[in-house]
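Sequence in, structure out. Go.
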Amino acid sequence: MTTTLERPETAMPQHKDPIPWRRIGWALPPLLLVLVFAVYPTARVLPESLSTADGIGLSTWSSVLGSELFRTALWRTIHIAVASTLGCLVLGTFLALVLAFVPFAGSKVVGRLIDTVLALPSFLITLAFTFLYGTAGAVNALIVRVTGDANGPLNFLNTPFGVIAAEITFFTPFVVRPLLAAFTQIPREQLDVAASLGASPVRVLRQVVMPEAWPALLAGGSLVLLLTLNEFGIVLFTGAKDVVTLPVLIYTRGIVTFDLPGAAVIATVQVALSLGLYCLYRFTFNRLTGGSRAAVDTKL
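Output:
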């Protein structure tokens, strides 16, 4: 019995792809810009915070972190950021639901006005609040004219509540826009079927609309939290002397008193806090979106 040995097929030589120089060339300019204008200045903050009169040490860190002013500013920053974010989520969700599902005359105009707020600097909102709700503002003047009192009752702009109200007014569009985009992706037929089956509007909102909007709500809320955490213009223009946040404290240490090492310590804490919140947001968002994709894959 004769056997024929089959000649093994020779593998075709694999040619390595050439180095994508064109892609590298396109990526280098923005990468260099980020490194020069963002990463390098931020990286310089940490060595500056370690500089002392005797050289390098942690004495500046211990003195700044142990001060009552820093702890008060940290608590005030977190308190204002969380309260403003919650207010933006509540008000933004309400406005987005009305604009998306409650037809009324002028809804497009209201949507355009909300978009206009995004193009304005934050201190203009504070200035508008001063003209409207300040001690000599239009609302107090009207109340004084009607009641005949010597002074108007509104005097909240120099308090944490005034800062929170101004930040809610300015940052609410950052919640409205993602929610409106998410609501437009919901099929109208799905809402009609749920309503035809006897579901109340509240139940449709809870079981059909909001589950689809959670990623957009999380994205808008996380963005607002990061922005309010680092907000400086609104706090400064309210003139609230007792409302000291971390950005205001950095400005005071670095510009007013020229304490650059102390300002660098607070700035490092601010950067670490912002990066920590951003990483937490990305982790939570990936878990939510990953879980929904996994569920879809299992159904398919």
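Check: Confidence is low (pLDDT under 50) at residues 291-300. Strands lie at 51-52, 55-56.
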